[in-house]
Design a protein that fits this description.
By secondary structure, the chain is an alpha/beta fold. The protein has a single domain, classed as Rossmann fold, CATH 3.40.50.620. Helices cover 52% and strands 21% of the residues. A 5-stranded parallel beta sheet has the order 3-2-1-4-5, with helices on both faces. Strand 1, helix 1 and strand 2 form a beta-alpha-beta unit. The longest helix is centred in the middle third of the chain and has 31 residues.
């Protein structure tokens, strides 16, 4: 079974560096990439019927924008001969990345580090901190 690199991607420079790092590792190891764009989304909100319809429309627009930002990256990686797949999901990024990694089998999660230093970052931690504590597979945090 080849190594799968699960890469959290959101279009930021940090996530692009994570893709570059994972691509180099996949090329060297003969592995593959699985890019994941997670749109944070809570199902636990109360809305009117009209708000739910509007929310559904926004959700579809967000999915389309995420796919549009991923496709050129996927095309570029495939052009380099790297097996690459992608998906866009709504939910909690840490939970989804872990779920996808477990399902993939021989996987490593690769994410870019953001430089947050505010109170919220210290109190709540970021994706990197959450994955460092909870990931069932190895993780690589790219500066």
């Amino acid at each position: 079974m080849s190594q799968t690199y699960i890469v959290g991607f959101d279009g930021t420079p940090q996530s692009r560096r994570a893709v570059e790092h994972a691509a180099a590792a996949a090329k060297k190891a003969g592995g593959k990439l699985h890019l994941v764009f997670v749109i944070e989304w809570s199902p636990y909100s109360f809305h009117t019927a009209q708000e739910l319809a509007e929310r559904h429309g926004r959700r579809e627009q967000e999915l389309d924008r995420a796919r549009e930002s991923l496709q050129p990256v996927v095309d570029e990686l495939k052009g380099q001969g790297i097996a690459t797949e992608f998906e866009v999901r709504h939910g909690n990024a840490a939970e989804l990345l872990c779920e996808i990694a477990v399902a993939a089998g021989n996987a490593t999660i690769v994410i870019g580090r953001t430089g947050g230093s505010g109170l919220a970052q210290r109190l709540l931690g970021g994706l990197a901190m959450t994955l460092a504590q909870a990931s069932p597979v190895p993780i690589t945090i790219v500066p």
